[in-house]
Amino acid sequence: MPIKQEIFAIVISLFLLFFIIELVRRKKLREEYSWLWLLTGSIILILALWYDLLQGITRFIGASLPTSTLFFLGLFFLILIAIQFSVKVSALFTQVKNLAQENGLLKQRIEELEREDYSPNEHESKES
Amino acid sequence: MKDTLNKAAKILTIIPAFNEEHTIAQVISGIKVHAPYCDILVIDDGSSDATALRARATGAKIIHLPFNMGYGIALQTGYKYALEKGYHYMVQLDGDGQHDPRYIEGLLSAVKSGETDVAIGSRFSKNNENHVYRAGWMKRTGILLFSAITSLIIKQKVSDPTSGYQAITRKVAQFYASEAYPCDYPDADVIIMLNRAGFRIKEIPVVMHQNKNKKSMHSGMKPLYYVFKMFLSIFLTLLRKRELFNQGSGRVCP
Description:
The complex is a heterodimer of chains A (128) and B (254). Chain A has helices spanning 3-25, 31-49, 51-61, 66-118, 120-127. Chain A is mainly alpha-helical. In chain B, strands 3-2-1-4-6-5-7 form a seven-stranded mixed β-sheet, with helices on both faces. The two termini of chain B are 32 Å apart. At the A-B interface, helix 4 of A face strand 3 and helix 3 of B.
């Protein structure tokens, strides 16, 4: 790999790694989501530093150029991250759904209790 | 006050309603006439019109969802309420006047007699000759298609798998309130799930009225999505293990 490309790749991956770690440190990003991003950054860094590995992978998967391998890996990790988000969104949706339902049920219950408070007679006749 | 026959059993009618201000009061008064022994619960699914006001004026119980969450979720809220309040049987019907409250009695007696766990009001059932339900060819084809698939899978004739007019027992409500219930689009897949969970299903002939001024649940691009979603949902239901449903039905309210 030409030295220019190598430096560029190393700088980018280092920047990505520090950026993610900084986000986690400042609690802007939960650790739960950071690991896939950190993995992606680390792999870019490793491949940039270790060109033989990149060539090895290229041969192994049958790609013609090391660049395609990089693109392929990049895409693959992006897809993984997108799936992780979809899973989390589904889980969040279920939580929102349950909260909304619970909210509706509680509101109904409060209204019922308030009515009973204001009209004790009605309450008694209900029980009889 | 209450019908002596039904005194022992607490029954709740659940009406999920989203922007049904024109029909909701009429539906509720219909229930009061034809099934006075039932409590009535309206789930206001984040309506932007006067649905809640109209329903409240009739004296029905109302649950507000903070925003529109869809038919299945509104319905499930009703079942959660019914379980919490200890109802024995529940009837679900639409707030748009499509489902005639006259048939509540028939649906209920099927579940109360113990012959079935779920009674589904069918507009196409064979013994329903006095009335023909008119629908567009797309809708008809869709219903026929899913009727055939559902019947094939559960090995029992289901003529109207898209019907939202049902009476169920408390056991089934527990299943509906669990996470196994497909909240986003409950339909033919629910019947298959019910069957897999070991519930008995019976169709009762009912008359359904055409929606007069309604955007159908299946309009615009929706039919395509609907067919796709239903195939996917049925396929996934078949892939899942039976135990999952049984667990689901027992977990919520032991």
